[in-house]
Amino acid sequence: MTERYVKKRETILDAAARLFNQRGVKGVTLSDVAGQVGLSTNSITYYYKKKEDLVVACLLRSVDAVGDIIPVAASEADASRRVTRFIALFFDRMAAVRRGQAPEMMTFRDVQALAGDHAEVVFSAYTGMFRRVRALLAGDGALPSDRTALNARSHLLLTLTVRAMSWVVRYDADDYARVAARMSEILTGGLGAEGARWRLCPLDERLAQAPSPVSTTHDAFLRAATALINEQGYRGASVDRISARLNVTKGSFYHHNPTKEDLVSACFERSFALIRDAQSLALDAEGSGWDRLCALSRALVRHQFSERGPLLRMSAWTELPEELRGDKQRTISQLSLRFVALLVDGMRDGSVRPLDQAVAAELVGGMINASVELDRWVPGITADNALELFVRPLFVGIIRP
């Protein structure tokens, strides 16, 4: 393998990762990548025969980038320092990418777009990365020793850290270290002020009794499509599979849904409405900002496991037609600001400690979004134990017992 070959391959990977991050896997072709690097499509296929091969190479390079920083973080003496160092190093790497000093990293939000052998290769590499991150939390007397609790917290730490690739771009590269410190402070110390307690409150019952969407054939299609997109990505959620899950014909599918893209867009709107309605109840309720945000988060994670669930992964916006993406991204940002409002309420009434509300809102939203994949990392997870194993650690601190 010549130096020229390696250099050209890295140039292709940089361009591809950048395009995949901007448009999603579905929105990028090999000819798009070729145009970015001044090559013909045939020249790209000399290096990567299929787009899926290129996606795998980009994702494996991101896994390697994370793998490079884990041993450095692991050298710290305790879990708190290891978590803080891991996040700081990851943000340093993202800042270097932003400044053009390190290779582009592809986000992991489109992993579900892969199938077959391609998916197996990436999931195997991601699992190895997960286990190494888990070791950062293990072996510390302050943390739970059972594997189930450790897996849940490891999923929380890894998912929230790599998910930062999607939102840290709003900041100047010179501010990445500051943002990393604030994120670490929240993850290690939790959200609550001194005296804040993780407890059920009257809002939990109100949220549990909130009216459900009317059960219709169209709503059944939305639930089935949402679950399949979460599990297998846009491509995996084929019309045939959605129809088979509901035991209906393809003709019935197209009777209720003009196109698959229309159905995916409607899945977003359904999840947006469910989140917005729950947020409105929490914003209008009595009680401290802490209690209301805790109750809201418990309700939304519980919804993921209910018959009405799950919520659609917010990262699925990359699988929409380009003309619909901007509208969905704006709505996602608006919903995040409603979490900010509850955090501000908590800081004003003294139940939430002083922290960066924008970063905290991203972590709360990211935790709710990541809960849909909990069963992959925590076998036997249920709505009840997910609240203790996965939601509570974000609110009281990921390294606290």
From TrEMBL:
Coiled coil: none annotated. Keywords: DNA-binding, Transcription, Transcription regulation. Residues 6-66, 215-275 form the HTH tetR-type domain. SUPFAM superfamilies: Homeodomain-like, Tetracyclin repressor-like, C-terminal domain. Residues 29-48, 238-257 bind DNA. Pfam families: TetR_C_24, TetR_N. This is TetR family transcriptional regulator. It comes from Noviherbaspirillum aridicola.
